[in-house]
Amino acid sequence: MNKIIALLIVTFLFSACLTSKKNSYTPDYKPGPPTIVYKTKKDYSKNVPVKLNDEKNRIVSYSGPGDLTYQGKLAYPTELENGYLLDNIGIGENVAYLSLTIDVYTKSAKAFTTDELFKLIIDNDPLVEMYNCGNRNSFKNDVKEINEIIKNKQLKDCKKLY
User: Fold this and answer.
1) Where are the beta strands (DSSP E) in the chain?
2) CA distances from 151 to 5, 6, 97, 147, 154 (A)
3) Where are the domains positioned within the chain?
Protein backbone atom coordinates (compact mmCIF):
# COMPACT_ATOMS: atom_id res chain seq x y z
CA MET A 1 0.00 0.00 0.00
CA ASN A 2 2.85 2.41 0.84
CA LYS A 3 4.44 1.69 -2.56
CA ILE A 4 1.18 2.60 -4.31
CA ILE A 5 0.90 5.87 -2.37
CA ALA A 6 4.55 6.70 -3.08
CA LEU A 7 4.04 5.94 -6.78
CA LEU A 8 0.95 8.17 -6.89
CA ILE A 9 2.86 11.01 -5.20
CA VAL A 10 5.78 10.71 -7.64
CA THR A 11 3.38 10.63 -10.60
CA PHE A 12 1.54 13.70 -9.31
CA LEU A 13 4.78 15.65 -8.75
CA PHE A 14 6.12 14.70 -12.19
CA SER A 15 2.90 15.80 -13.93
CA ALA A 16 2.88 19.06 -11.92
CA CYS A 17 6.42 19.80 -13.16
CA LEU A 18 5.42 19.18 -16.76
CA THR A 19 2.34 21.37 -16.41
CA SER A 20 4.26 24.28 -14.90
CA LYS A 21 6.80 24.22 -17.73
CA LYS A 22 4.03 24.26 -20.34
CA ASN A 23 2.30 27.22 -18.65
CA SER A 24 5.34 29.46 -18.64
CA TYR A 25 6.64 31.78 -21.32
CA THR A 26 9.92 33.64 -21.03
CA PRO A 27 9.96 36.86 -23.07
CA ASP A 28 13.23 37.94 -24.68
CA TYR A 29 13.74 41.61 -23.80
CA LYS A 30 16.92 42.17 -25.83
CA PRO A 31 17.08 45.55 -27.61
CA GLY A 32 14.77 45.89 -30.58
CA PRO A 33 11.13 46.52 -31.39
CA PRO A 34 8.80 45.49 -28.55
CA THR A 35 5.95 43.04 -28.99
CA ILE A 36 2.96 45.01 -27.69
CA VAL A 37 -0.23 43.00 -27.19
CA TYR A 38 -3.32 44.88 -26.04
CA LYS A 39 -7.09 45.23 -25.85
CA THR A 40 -9.13 48.41 -26.15
CA LYS A 41 -12.57 49.32 -24.79
CA LYS A 42 -13.90 49.87 -28.33
CA ASP A 43 -12.63 49.03 -31.80
CA TYR A 44 -10.03 51.69 -32.64
CA SER A 45 -8.05 49.45 -34.98
CA LYS A 46 -8.58 51.80 -37.95
CA ASN A 47 -7.97 55.05 -36.01
CA VAL A 48 -4.74 57.02 -35.72
CA PRO A 49 -3.04 56.62 -32.31
CA VAL A 50 -1.10 59.41 -30.60
CA LYS A 51 0.91 59.41 -27.38
CA LEU A 52 -0.16 61.70 -24.53
CA ASN A 53 1.79 62.94 -21.53
CA ASP A 54 1.02 61.38 -18.13
CA GLU A 55 -1.56 64.09 -17.37
CA LYS A 56 -3.25 63.33 -20.71
CA ASN A 57 -3.53 67.01 -21.54
CA ARG A 58 -0.93 67.23 -24.31
CA ILE A 59 0.25 65.13 -27.27
CA VAL A 60 3.93 64.27 -26.82
CA SER A 61 4.37 62.02 -29.86
CA TYR A 62 2.57 61.19 -33.08
CA SER A 63 3.35 59.66 -36.44
CA GLY A 64 3.46 61.64 -39.63
CA PRO A 65 1.09 60.60 -42.42
CA GLY A 66 3.91 58.74 -44.21
CA ASP A 67 4.96 56.82 -41.09
CA LEU A 68 1.87 54.68 -40.62
CA THR A 69 2.92 51.68 -42.66
CA TYR A 70 4.25 48.29 -41.60
CA GLN A 71 5.83 45.87 -44.06
CA GLY A 72 4.59 47.98 -46.99
CA LYS A 73 0.93 48.14 -45.86
CA LEU A 74 -1.11 50.48 -43.70
CA ALA A 75 -0.11 49.77 -40.10
CA TYR A 76 -3.36 48.48 -38.71
CA PRO A 77 -2.91 46.29 -35.65
CA THR A 78 -2.99 42.55 -36.25
CA GLU A 79 -6.02 40.74 -34.83
CA LEU A 80 -5.12 38.01 -32.36
CA GLU A 81 -7.01 35.43 -30.28
CA ASN A 82 -9.61 36.48 -27.69
CA GLY A 83 -9.93 40.07 -28.92
CA TYR A 84 -6.27 40.98 -28.43
CA LEU A 85 -4.36 43.09 -30.93
CA LEU A 86 -0.70 43.14 -31.93
CA ASP A 87 0.68 46.65 -32.34
CA ASN A 88 2.32 47.52 -35.67
CA ILE A 89 2.81 51.27 -35.10
CA GLY A 90 4.50 51.77 -31.74
CA ILE A 91 1.80 52.61 -29.21
CA GLY A 92 2.30 52.73 -25.45
CA GLU A 93 0.42 53.08 -22.17
CA ASN A 94 -0.57 56.71 -22.80
CA VAL A 95 -2.14 56.06 -26.19
CA ALA A 96 -5.16 58.05 -27.33
CA TYR A 97 -7.08 57.68 -30.57
CA LEU A 98 -8.08 60.33 -33.09
CA SER A 99 -11.29 60.50 -35.08
CA LEU A 100 -9.10 60.28 -38.22
CA THR A 101 -8.63 56.85 -39.71
CA ILE A 102 -5.17 55.66 -40.68
CA ASP A 103 -6.30 55.46 -44.31
CA VAL A 104 -7.50 59.09 -44.41
CA TYR A 105 -4.52 60.37 -42.40
CA THR A 106 -1.91 58.73 -44.68
CA LYS A 107 -3.51 60.38 -47.73
CA SER A 108 -3.61 63.81 -46.10
CA ALA A 109 -1.41 66.51 -47.55
CA LYS A 110 -2.08 68.67 -44.49
CA ALA A 111 0.59 69.01 -41.81
CA PHE A 112 -1.33 68.88 -38.54
CA THR A 113 -0.18 70.70 -35.41
CA THR A 114 -0.35 68.94 -32.05
CA ASP A 115 -3.15 71.35 -31.02
CA GLU A 116 -5.19 70.39 -34.10
CA LEU A 117 -4.62 66.69 -33.44
CA PHE A 118 -5.48 67.07 -29.75
CA LYS A 119 -8.91 68.43 -30.74
CA LEU A 120 -9.47 65.26 -32.82
CA ILE A 121 -9.02 62.87 -29.85
CA ILE A 122 -12.06 60.62 -29.42
CA ASP A 123 -10.70 58.52 -26.53
CA ASN A 124 -7.79 59.38 -24.24
CA ASP A 125 -8.21 56.27 -22.06
CA PRO A 126 -8.93 53.44 -24.52
CA LEU A 127 -6.97 50.54 -23.00
CA VAL A 128 -8.31 47.52 -21.15
CA GLU A 129 -4.95 45.67 -21.01
CA MET A 130 -1.47 46.04 -22.50
CA TYR A 131 1.58 43.76 -22.36
CA ASN A 132 5.15 43.87 -23.62
CA CYS A 133 6.02 40.30 -24.66
CA GLY A 134 9.66 40.98 -25.49
CA ASN A 135 11.58 41.67 -28.66
CA ARG A 136 9.41 41.30 -31.77
CA ASN A 137 12.36 39.88 -33.71
CA SER A 138 12.69 36.95 -31.29
CA PHE A 139 9.59 35.32 -32.82
CA LYS A 140 9.85 33.20 -35.96
CA ASN A 141 6.11 33.51 -36.66
CA ASP A 142 4.96 36.27 -34.32
CA VAL A 143 1.20 35.99 -34.88
CA LYS A 144 1.09 32.21 -34.51
CA GLU A 145 3.39 32.19 -31.46
CA ILE A 146 1.62 35.09 -29.72
CA ASN A 147 -1.75 33.41 -30.30
CA GLU A 148 -0.33 30.32 -28.57
CA ILE A 149 0.80 32.51 -25.65
CA ILE A 150 -2.74 33.91 -25.40
CA LYS A 151 -4.43 30.48 -25.71
CA ASN A 152 -2.11 29.03 -23.03
CA LYS A 153 -2.88 31.96 -20.70
CA GLN A 154 0.79 33.00 -20.71
CA LEU A 155 0.34 36.75 -21.13
CA LYS A 156 0.88 36.88 -17.35
CA ASP A 157 4.53 36.03 -18.12
CA CYS A 158 4.88 39.20 -20.22
CA LYS A 159 5.49 42.62 -18.70
CA LYS A 160 2.11 44.17 -17.90
CA LEU A 161 2.07 47.81 -19.02
CA TYR A 162 -1.59 48.59 -18.37
Assistant:
1) 34-40, 47-52, 59-62, 69-70, 73-74, 78-79, 85-86, 95-101, 121-123, 127-135, 159-160
2) 34, 34, 28, 6, 8
3) 27-160
Helices (H), 63-127: 102-107, 114-119
CA distance 14 to 9: 9
Identity of residue 162: Y
pLDDT tens-place string over residues 29-73? 999 999 999 999 999 999 999 999 999 999 999 999 889 988 889
Which amino acid is it at 107? K
CB atoms closer than 10 angstroms to residue 69: 14
- Cα distance between residue 82 and residue 68, in whole Å: 25
In tens, the pLDDT along 142-161 reads 999 999 999 999 999 999 99
Sequence-ordered alpha helix ranges (H) in the chain:
2-22, 102-107, 114-119, 142-151
